[in-house]
Amino acid sequence: MVEAVLIDLFSLPANLQNNIQVLLCNVLESIEKCFSIPAPFVYVICCQRQESERNGEQEPLLPALRDFQCLKKRVEVVRALTTAAALYTIKQNLDEKDLSIIKVILPTLRKDLMKVYIDHLFTAVYQFEFEDLQVASTCENIQVAEPQSEEQAVSAEDVALIRSEIQTYLESLPSLKGELNILRSSLIPDDIFLHGFTTRSGGISYIPTLSSCNLFSSSKRRDPQVVVKENLRRLANAAGFNPETFYRVKTDHANAVCVMGKTEPDSYDGIVTNQKGVTIAAPGADCIPVLFADPVRKACGAAHSGWKGTLLGVSMATVNAMVSEYGCNMKDILVVLGPSVGPCCYKLPHESAKEFHRIDPKCVRLFDSPNPFIDIRRATRILLESGGILPENIQDDSVTDQNQNVTFCTACHPEKFYSHFRDGTNFGTQIGFISIKD
């Protein structure tokens, strides 16, 4: 069932306002006849011309919106200087109302271009169907998309222009939830390494559970890659690294490690490098983003350690890669555990809890309950120390620093961090990042 209808009048010239009004009346009348109650939300996008705005020339559209009873209060005209701005405004409305099935009625010549905009600004959460803009006199014309004519490929130049338009618009948006805030560890020497852990402030993601500096896009979430890319650009600008040489682990909740410069695995939860100016990162939204630094050999690493990765030893796998690839001495490697869900909040089924209990009974609280509390940080520290990392070279502020420098509980601090455990499936993601300074 179509939940929203988008009528694209953006490309029609201003001198056709009267024709637009007649056309819009016919389209709205067909929508009303077909959908009755509950009516879909209808968005009409038009080009905002500054001269027309000053002269009040937008008024001829208004009578077309007045007399449709089932669509009352569900029709909105969105005027913008660019298609990107109009679509992003509509996307915010769709997200606020949790709508995802959209019919787009538009001129045939706009269809392929519109699909490029949609591919960039939306994710697979949304479903789109397209219909040619014409006088639709029957319900069938609204309910069933007409047969598509043979599509003409959009030129590479047009795609580049659309990408540039979207990027320019996103860069113009104000940051939400205040300025970017980057947490840094005093254990990692800042004369050799650039590093940090992000919080949720300072980006442009607006969906509540993703707001505002979300740094991961997924086909299952509503934040598109272009928004995450803009958040990353702002982070890179604030932190001082090059976003073009930024590499994030391809999480699999396992223990594979990627060595920069060698063949990249299809998926991996650890990454290491000794290349200057290359920034590597691991995500975390309850899972631990773990950073590794060897100031002697000047090598570094990052790992994503959830409960599965912790049990599989992803942190020691990352350490071992630094030792084997760069000749690091185990006793020189510094390890920092970033913001992650604490034992105060995190529960697992009893069968999984048994594995942590085998590492150390103190890793589990209320062991006899069906869903005991789990301390994945303690388990990570124990496995690292067993592997040869010095206890004093591991920073876990939940143990060593009551002022909580970097190792906060993500679930306990909704104003600071994203949390899958707390927010559900449409959750945002923060990262831990590190690079070797030039």
Automatic annotation (TrEMBL):
CDD domains in UniProt: YfiH
SUPFAM superfamilies, per the entry: CNF1/YfiH-like putative cysteine hydrolases
Listed Gene3D superfamilies: CNF1/YfiH-like putative cysteine hydrolases
Catalyzed reactions: adenosine + H2O + H(+) = inosine + NH4(+); inosine + phosphate = alpha-D-ribose 1-phosphate + hypoxanthine; adenosine + phosphate = alpha-D-ribose 1-phosphate + adenine; S-methyl-5'-thioadenosine + phosphate = 5-(methylsulfanyl)-alpha-D-ribose 1-phosphate + adenine
Entry's EC annotation: 2.4.2.1, 2.4.2.28, 3.5.4.4
Cellular compartments per GO CC: endoplasmic reticulum; nucleus; peroxisome
Main location as per UniProt: cytoplasm
Keyword Acetylation found: yes
Localisation: Cytoplasm; Endoplasmic reticulum; Nucleus; Peroxisome
One Pfam assignment: Cu-oxidase_4
GO biological process, one term: inflammatory response
GO molecular function, a single term: copper ion binding
Keywords assigned by UniProt, alphabetized: Acetylation, Cytoplasm, Endoplasmic reticulum, Hydrolase, Immunity, Inflammatory response, Innate immunity, Metal-binding, Nucleus, Peroxisome, Phosphoprotein, Transferase, Zinc
Subunit architecture: Interacts with FASN. Interacts with SDHA. Interacts with ATF6, EIF2AK3 and ERN1.
Family named by the database record: Belongs to the purine nucleoside phosphorylase YfiH/LACC1 family.
The protein, known as: Purine nucleoside phosphorylase LACC1
Biological source species: Heliornis fulica (sungrebe)
Lineage: Eukaryota, Metazoa, Chordata, Craniata, Vertebrata
